[in-house]
Write a structure and sequence with these properties.
CATH class: Mainly Alpha
Number of strands: 0
CATH architecture: Up-down Bundle
Strand content: under 5%
Order of helices and strands: HHHHHHH
Shape: globular
Largest sheet: none
CATH topology: Growth Hormone, Chain: A
Distance between the termini: 41 Å
Number of domains: 1
Structural class: mainly alpha
Length: about 190
């Protein structure tokens, strides 16, 4: 409980500290990664680490990148959007991922609670900072991609129907990992140094 409170305090402090910085979260300096990419890589590493604690790995119905086929197509289409619309796409994906991981108990998994808390803090930080960028950029389109929204709703329902089992969480972890890997590519194309 103390670690959760500490991480929440650290995250909120950092978020409030960066409120006036506009969209520097997504910008890259020459030869380096953006803060989004740094945190996204930490989130990816955390999910990969958590995956080592679950046995069995099935991947039917998925494209080569681990995403359901229709979502892989959506990520490919997002690569050709304007910067503001790419940012909206990233925010909706992060928001769906954060809601998914906060939807129920992961006690059935072998994941350490500290790892889950850290993952949630990374997701919260990314989601908050991307939302700050959206406020600074004021994109014209804020339409939620209906297929993506339905995708996260179905994943949440599947988790619930499977009683938040370890295998259900593993499936969620693998799909979220694929999402984050694709979001990293998309973020790299928003602001080129």
């Amino acid at each position: 409980m103390r670690s959760t409170n500490l991480w929440t305090l650290v995250t909120l402090t950092l978020c409030l500290w960066n409120v006036g910085t506009g969209c520097t979260w997504m910008e890259r300096q020459k030869g380096s990664r953006s803060m989004f990419q740094v945190f996204n890589n930490k989130t990816i590493s955390m999910l990969q680490h958590m995956g080592r604690r679950v046995e069995g790995d099935r991947s039917s119905g998925f494209s080569g990148d681990g995403l359901p086929n229709f979502l892989s197509k959506q990520h490919n289409q997002a690569l050709h959007l304007k910067a503001e619309d790419k940012l909206v796409f990233i925010w909706h994906a992060l928001n769906g991922i954060e809601r998914l991981f906060s939807s129920g108990s992961s006690n059935a998994t072998r994941w350490a609670q500290r790892d889950v808390d850290e993952l949630m803090n990374y997701l919260f930080r990314q989601n908050t900072q991307v939302h700050q960028c959206l406020k600074a950029m004021r994109p014209t389109s804020n339409a939620v991609n209906k297929k993506m929204k339905l995708h996260f709703r179905l994943m949440k329902k599947s988790l619930k129907n499977q009683g938040y089992s370890a295998s259900a969480w593993e499936e969620v972890r693998r799909v979220v990992l694929a999402h984050l890997l694709r979001l990293d590519v998309l973020a790299a194309r928003i602001f080129k140094a």
